[in-house]
Design brief:
Blueprint: E1 8-11, E2 14-17, H1 28-32, E3 35-37, E4 40-45, E5 48-52, H2 54-67, H3 76-89, E6 95-103, E7 117-124, H4 134-137, E8 139-143, H5 164-176, E9 181-185, E10 191-194, E11 198-203, E12 206-209, H6 220-231, E13 236-238, E14 251-256, E15 260-267, E16 270-271, H7 279-292, E17 303-305
Parallel strand pairs: 8-9, 8-15, 12-13
Antiparallel strand pairs: 1-2, 1-7, 3-6, 4-5, 4-6, 5-17, 6-7, 9-10, 11-12, 11-14, 14-15, 15-16
Helix pairs in contact: 2-3
């Protein structure tokens, strides 16, 4: 989706005009992928612009940087406040927020530690990631020929820019072959996740989702959906999932900040269930959107208001 410019970007501690938030071409991040980022959505509600689970997102940003021995020069509280300030400055009622931490200009070479740590926060308008009709009709996906990275090679727990080279290969292959998205297996051949989404499998009323040990990013929307399913009385098992379970599932769906809760209607041209959004998917999807749009009480404290 093309980016439409907004007025301001929060850049190293202050709001600057959009076109002035630039980096040097010799910044370490350009050559070695040393960045850590988040994707956060905000929604229009009767109480104003609500940012969905902002503090957990920013905590994960801090954690991602820490795994790579990177100390962000702002506290968690300062980062949360900066996101809210950026949303307010751009008068964003609903959209997408992209905080990013990266190693800037200073030294050349693999070692990042001599390069400054810089922070930027941008906001954009962004609709449905997998298409406008995906929420009801679902999407067609494939199992990718590209696996997720093995444990002790790259840390899947870190939402790091370099990790997403793997995601790009998964996504491009899927699109080239006529699918909307790809599902990656882990290094042991078990189901991992999509290029940028976590995955849920439903069989006989039980929901399965791959565990952290299957090289997934521990998604915040994933955690949200697990909580909602529990409140619905649906059993959720976080366990290793064999590939063939994708082909015999009654329902499948993706979760993620961008994807939200998106049904899957086929995998490798094999129809999932009845080829449309299933009942459990529909119920958890409705519960999710009711909360984020302020139509249902936020019993979990998930909404953080930009004006607060």
């Amino acid at each position: 989706m093309p980016i439409a410019k907004m007025d301001y970007i929060w850049f190293n501690g202050e709001l600057v005009e959009w076109d002035k938030a630039t980096i040097h071409v010799l910044s370490h991040v350009v050559h070695y992928g040393t960045s850590f980022f988040e994707g956060v959505r905000c929604y229009e509600t009767p109480k104003g612009t609500a940012i969905f689970r902002l503090t957990p997102h920013m905590r994960r940003l801090v954690d991602s940087a820490r795994i790579y021995r990177t100390e962000i020069p702002y506290s968690l509280e300062q980062l949360v406040a900066a996101v809210k300030a950026t949303v307010r400055a751009n008068k964003l009622r609903a959209g997408y927020i992209r905080p990013v931490v990266y190693r800037g200009y200073g030294e050349i070479g693999v070692n990042p530690l001599g390069n400054p740590v810089e922070v930027a926060i941008a906001t954009i308008e962004w609709g449905k990631y997998l298409g406008a009709d995906a929420m009801e009709n679902g999407v067609d996906v494939c199992v990718s020929s590209w696996n997720r990275f093995a444990p002790n090679t790259l840390p899947a727990m870190a939402k790091a820019g370099g990790n997403y080279m793997n995601s790009q290969l998964i996504k491009m292959e899927a699109l080239a072959n006529g699918y909307s998205e790809g599902i990656a297996l882990d290094s042991n051949g078990h189901v991992s996740e999509g290029s940028g989404e976590n995955l849920f499998i439903i069989r006989d009323g039980v929901v399965y989702t791959p565990p952290a040990s299957s090289s997934i990013l521990s998604g915040i929307t994933r955690d949200t959906v697990i909580t909602l399913l529990g409140a619905m009385g649906v059993e959720v098992r976080q366990q290793v999932v064999p590939r063939e379970m994708l082909y015999v599932a009654d329902e499948l769906f993706f979760t993620g900040t961008a994807a939200e809760v998106s049904p899957i209607r086929s995998v490798d041209r094999i129809t999932v269930g009845k080829g449309r959004r299933g009942p459990i998917t529909a119920e958890v999807q409705a519960a999710f959107f009711a909360i984020v749009h302020g139509e249902r009480a936020d019993a979990y404290g998930w909404l953080e208001y930009a004006d607060a």
